[in-house]
Design goal:
single chain; Nucleotidyltransferase, domain 5; six-stranded mixed β-sheet; binds adenosine monophosphate
């Protein structure tokens, strides 16, 4: 069985083609600058990389080129080999708590919920419509970023604001990165050989969220009504006092959306360091004793530790902490600093084991109170698994 996982952005389309017999990646790639001058694609397969500039006026063009290339490059013999298409969908509000077969109702809901994810939901619809046009007979599955977090209790997902905001406008915590946290949960279940455990899953990359999981279910997560909330990120502020917004509006003569744009795009590591949103750059500057970079790194670590501590209490202790995504999988000094700050909980890591990147590794010592793992996330595989599962039902 062959399944394609699709992640459609407003001007991009990422794909991975899986052989689900052994869950191997047959090919993967990216179509970028769709509808913009200079559009191009890159396809990786069998250790090769093919890249070409080509006019792509819309997502349907990109899908047509993708499918043509899969056959031309002999990655597959014919399009009949594609058994299903899985789409990463961002916002399913409180209607979708698991993945679904895509039908007209799902597409109309994505449109209905677009105010909740104005950049992502319309792009997801473009991706779905493109495949519907080009591969109308192939079943498609939608995998929502918000779905895993639907098990939170009302006391967790409601904000302490007028209840009518929730009733009338849907103001509540939704949470994101759910597909990644679910993948990590399943990996931990496999590693421990059981389904019952208390897990704190730290997806820390350019975007970042931390999720508390009990017996396979999300209990709380750090992102909120939007992906701006929670920990500090590459360019996003994470949680701040909301009164800062009208104050800065007044000071800088900006409107609310301009200030929120500053919080999304010019804050976090980038805003604090006035240098870069990339942790590698920040760490280089820290080595040069750059004061702003050191403060930015320390704040980043602090916010992760704050959430781990909070979820430790919420879960009544923790069996496993997992680091994943760009920083979590690769940044040896950041993991070390976070774990050192958790020493009061009895967390101990083996510095040699922590010296690894991008592979599944248990970095805690045998006498650590909590097992600490690095697990590379794989949202594309999770999407392909859900797709296979739903089309086989
Ligand atoms: P992601 O959004 O998951 O792709 O993560 C991207 C972020 O991971 C980058 O912005 C970097 O800050 C971080 N990252 C990737 N590789 C490394 C590395 N070797 N050391 C430190 N940070 C890294």
């Amino acid at each position: 069985m062959k399944i394609i996982s699709i992640n459609a952005g407003s001007s991009s389309l990422k794909f991975s083609l899986f052989n689900m017999d052994d869950e191997s990646v047959i090919a993967s790639g990216l179509f970028e600058r769709i509808g913009i001058e200079g559009s191009k694609y890159t396809i990786k397969f069998r250790g090769e990389k093919v890249s070409q500039e080509i006019e792509l006026t819309n997502h349907t063009d990109a899908v047509k080129v993708l499918l043509d290339k899969l056959v031309d490059l002999e990655i597959i013999q014919s399009l009949d080999e594609i058994d299903g298409v899985g789409h990463r969908l961002v916002h399913g509000k409180d209607k979708y708590s698991e993945s679904v077969l895509i039908n007209d109702e799902v597409v109309s809901d994505l449109d209905k919920f677009k105010d909740f994810a104005p950049l992502h939901n319309p792009a997801n619809i473009l991706g779905i419509n493109a495949f519907r046009e080009v591969l109308p007979e192939v079943p498609m599955v939608g995998v929502f970023d918000t779905a895993f977090h639907q098990t939170m209790s009302p006391a967790t997902y409601l904000y302490s604001v007028p209840y009518s905001w929730y009733q009338n406008y849907g103001v509540r915590k939704y949470g994101f990165h759910g597909t990644s946290h679910r993948y990590i949960t399943k990996m931990v279940a496999k590693l421990l050989g059981k389904e019952e455990f208390r897990l704190i899953s730290c997806h820390i990359g350019n975007g970042g969220s931390i999720t508390a999981v009990k017996d396979g279910k999300c209990v709380d997560t750090s992102m909120g009504f939007t992906p701006l909330a929670g920990i500090m990120m590459g360019t996003r502020s994470g949680d701040i006092d909301p009164s800062i917004i009208p104050y800065v509006m007044e000071q800088e003569g900006k409107n609310a959306s301009e200030v929120v744009d500053d919080l999304n795009k010019r804050s976090g590591l980038f805003g604090m360091s006035e240098y870069s949103s990339d942790m590698r750059d920040i760490l280089e500057k820290c080595d040069l004793q750059d004061e702003k970079a050191i403060i930015a790194r320390d704040k980043y670590v602090r916010r992760v530790v704050d959430y781990i501590a909070q979820y430790y209490v919420l879960l009544g202790g923790a069996d496993v902490i997992v680091f994943t995504a760009g920083v979590g999988e690769n940044s040896i000094p950041v993991r070390r600093q976070i774990c050192e700050e958790l020493a009061c909980l009895g967390v101990k890591i083996d510095l040699d084991k922590n010296n690894k990147r991008g592979e599944v590794v248990k970095i805690s010592t045998e006498d650590s109170s909590i097992q600490v793992y690095v697990i590379p996330t794989d949202e594309e595989l999770m999407i392909a698994r859900d797709t296979l599962d739903l089309i086989n039902r």
